[in-house]
Specification:
Layout (H helix, E strand, L loop, with lengths): L2 H10 L2 E8 L7 H12 L5 E5 L7 H4 L7 E3 L2 E3 L1 E3 L2 E5 L1 H4 L8 H14 L5 E7 L6 H10 L3 E7 L3 H16 L3 E12 L13 H8 L3 E7 L1 H5 L10 H15 L2
Parallel strand pairs: 1-7, 1-8, 2-6, 2-7, 8-9, 9-10
Antiparallel strand pairs: 3-4, 5-6
The structure holds adenosine-5'-diphosphate (ADP) and magnesium ion.
């Protein structure tokens, strides 16, 4: 047996639940959902956040952390951003591009899961890049027994079609699906205005084959500035986060 897989198992032993934040397409708000959900849950629980968007890590920016990861004898030590323990390649490489592919990328993901010393966590939230590539596949295979997925999509037909394929892949790997989040579903400051047009929530859930657990508003504040200021999120956004949290507790 690969020694690293034994280490992965050991590391997961101190973690209750792994939430994989996934989508079919990029730019739909996975990182925003992962970061705000991590912050929201960290009010009550111990939360870790792993940025697996290896080519475009954005969580250090969203959570306002410019520090550096440190390797210690007992593994990689997450940094602490707000109440959240964070690991991102953005904390290693700053702005440099990472030429990663194939076997090297798969190895790196296994290393991250085997080397990071999260300590005791109730939730490990994993921010995935879009689609059905190595990151999603390796992450779901390594964490299968503890993993459930939160699917994120805008309410556009394009994005919903892609997230449906993503849900098939995850289900095929045996991952539980906590639900579908429709992001940027309406304008936070004028609720009737829907940037992607009107839709029937029930129908969207049926078409994708995954229940819609929350609709999050488009917040001008998030769109125009980083880091995310949790204190400035609208009530609708905070309620949406609470609904996602509830859906994950039920699993
Ligand atoms: N609910 C939202 N309100 C306003 N802007 C948002 C919202 N969700 C995402 N964005 C913006 O959309 C862009 C893509 O979001 P991001 O989380 O990086 O997507 P992904 O991780 O899926 O690629 C970012 O500029 C982000 O600030
Ligand atoms: Mg992202």
């Amino acid at each position: 047996m690969d020694f690293r897989l034994q280490m992965v198992k050991k590391r997961l032993g101190t973690i209750d639940k792994v939430l994989l934040v996934a989508s079919g397409k990029g730019g739909v708000g996975k990182s925003v959902v992962a970061a705000t959900l991590a912050n929201h849950i960290s009010g009550e629980k111990k939360v870790g956040l792993l940025d697996l968007d290896l080519h475009g890590p954005t969580l250090p920016l969203l959570l306002n952390h410019g520090g550096r990861l440190k390797g210690r004898e007992d593994g990689i030590e997450p940094v602490v951003a707000g109440g959240v323990r964070l690991v991102s390649l953005g904390l290693l490489t700053s702005d440099k591009a990472m030429p990663l592919k194939g076997e090297v990328k798969r190895d790196l993901i296994i290393e991250l899961f085997s080397e990071i010393n999260w300590g005791r966590l109730n939730y490990l939230i994993v921010d995935l890049p879009p689609g059905t590539g190595d990151e999603a596949l390796v992450a779901v295979r390594l964490t299968a027994e503890k993993a459930s997925a939160i699917l994120v999509s805008t309410p556009s037909p394009h994005s919903l079609g892609a997230v449906r394929r993503m849900s098939w892949l995850l289900a095929g790997e045996g991952a539980k699906i906590a639900g579908l989040v429709l992001n940027m579903a309406y304008m936070a400051d004028s609720i009737g205005v829907k940037p992607f047009g009107s839709y029937d929530v029930e129908k969207v859930g049926e078409e994708v084959g995954v229940k819609v657990v929350a609709e999050l508003p488009l917040e001008p504040e998030i769109a125009s500035s980083t880091p995310i200021n949790m204190g400035k999120l609208s009530e609708g956004f905070r309620k949406g986060l609470e609904r996602i949290y509830e859906a994950t507790r039920a699993l």
